[in-house]
Every structure is written in structure tokens, then in C-alpha cells.
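Listing S7. Sequence submitted for prediction.
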Amino acid sequence: MSTIADVATRAGVSKATASRALSGRGYVSEETRQRVAAAAQELSYVAHSSAMSLATGRTQTVGVVMPHVSRWFFGEVLEGIQAALLEHGLDLTLYDARPGTETRRRVFEDFLARRRFDGVIAVGLEPAESELDALLALGKPVVSVIGTEGDTSLVTLDDAHATALATAHLVELGHRRIAFLGGTDATRWPHVESERYAGYESEMRRAGLAAEISRVPAELSMPAGYAAAVDLLSDPASRPTGIVAACDDVAIGAIIAARRLGILVPSALSVVGIDDHVNAEMFALTTLRQVPHEQGRAAVELLLRHIEDPEADTVTMRIKPRMVVRGTTAGAPGHSSVAVRDSTLSRRD
């Protein structure tokens, strides 16, 4: 069986050059790349990951750390990461590090330090300095999906833009009493929820509705959204006619609460979410679509850039959401505006 050394000898180049030419990573002139490819074909050479590692000093492996593999957003991000890594011929080692568990502590304090990676993608990293420090201490490139700017390159939804669009949609439909539902002081990702609230607040002020600004705290889950919405909607004199929810789960909880209270959606209450996750279509939810699969792919491309150039500056990639108008928004009671539904927008791409 031919080796990378045989290919290099046949092509008249070093093993490292032959490896770069065959992997497509690192600069090699086109003429050299073609010569190496021809030599590999003549020798029926098939690259082996261990041989590639010896030749390049790389493991051809990327570590991925995330808190909830089974949840929709994280599962979609993981699929995107895996697809992009496979296209580049790279392996993946996954750590399901659930928040608050002994397993998570061991992942950051022990397992990551023992394994060799070319880089790490951290998905939903909580704002704990010890965890970020543990990743940076590996001395390898790190890219975050959801996180704070500065220490690592970041791929995230433009959260403030999303809620500004959601709020503007309700304002255009004639709503004035619009509440923001979701977020707590003890949230795991305060930067996400604070930006989403900031987008809502900014748009309300821009529309001259500062006096109507209202935030109702709730964990980012369907049961929490339901419980908070029951309290919010119980008083007919003060209830809003529109809700901007911090995520789709909270929005769906609010819709269920409204139905149980006998409040018609959307004729008496309009609701907008953020995500467009798998249950959004079932509830005909108007929402801002983020595409976590593409966030995963973008994280891989950023990581490869940092692997090739460890001195490259960190980058923040904010992905713009797309509004999907379905059946949970309509003109405010007594207002002539109606929601215009575009079936091409409500179909998942």
C-alpha cells in the first residue's frame, strides 16, 4: 500500500507539501497540486487520517461542546457542523455538557485538556469565565455559536434586529399595547435575551410607544411561557393586544394560555416568536426564522480560517433573520389592518 512519502517522492515534493496538496488546506501552487494529485492517482494512494496527522502536525479532528444535543436548535447546529466538517474531510468529537452537571465540569477541566484537537466549536457557552478560560488554555482556535464578543470568533443571530422586526410588524398592524414575554435575571444566556429585549424596546420608542413598554419575565420554555402569559392575560383591562416572545417555545406557551382563557388568536391577541422551530408551523406561528444549520456551517468555516492563520483577528458574524408570517398575527382589535400571509414564506426551506 502506498504512503504519503511514496506520493511525495513520485511528485518530487516534501511530505508536508504533498499532504497540503491532497487535503486542500494550506497554500500549494496549482501546478504542484496537480502533480501531487497525479502521483497519488498513479500509486492508488488513499489518505489515512493518522498519516495526515504525522505529515501536517494536525489531528484532523474538531471538538464540539454543547449543552443540549437533543433540543431542536442545538441538534440543527450540530448537523450543520458535521456536514461542513465531512466536506473538509475532518472528524468530530462531541461533548454533550449539560449545564450544572458533574459531566460538564469534567469536560472542561479534564477531557478537553486530554484530547488533541485542531480547534473547538463551543455552542451555547454560558458566561462562566472558568469555562471560557479552560477552552482558551488549550492553545487551539475556538469559535462560539451563541456567546459574547471579544475572546473568540462568534456566529449568532442578530437578536436585536429580530425583535425589532417582530415589534415593527405588530405596530404596522395597529397594535399599541405590545408586551415582551421572556427572559429572567438568572438566565443562562443573558446576552441573547438582553439583546432581544433591547430590539423590542428600541422599536417601541421609535414608534412613540415608550409608555407601553412592558417586559414579563419567563424562562425560555413552553411551560414557563404559558404560566407567565396566564398572569399577563388574565386582566381584560390591562392585557396587551400583541406579544413579542423571546423565542418560539415562549410564544407557543402564550398561545395555549390565551386559548384556555378564551382569548382568540389572532383577532384579540397577536403573537410573534423567534426561531421558526419544528412546532412553529403546527401552531401557525408568525416568527423570525433563524437557520441554526447554517450557523453550524459558518462556525466551521470560521474555525478553519483560524486554524490556517492562528493570528487572524476574531470575527463576529451576525445572521439576519427572515420574517415568516403565518396565522398568529392580525390587525389590532378595531384596526383596519390585516396580516398579509405569503405561503412561500411559511414553507420551510
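Caption to Listing S7: primary sequence and predicted C-alpha cells for the chain studied. The chain is about 45% helix and 15% strand. Confidence is low (pLDDT under 50) at residues 338-349.
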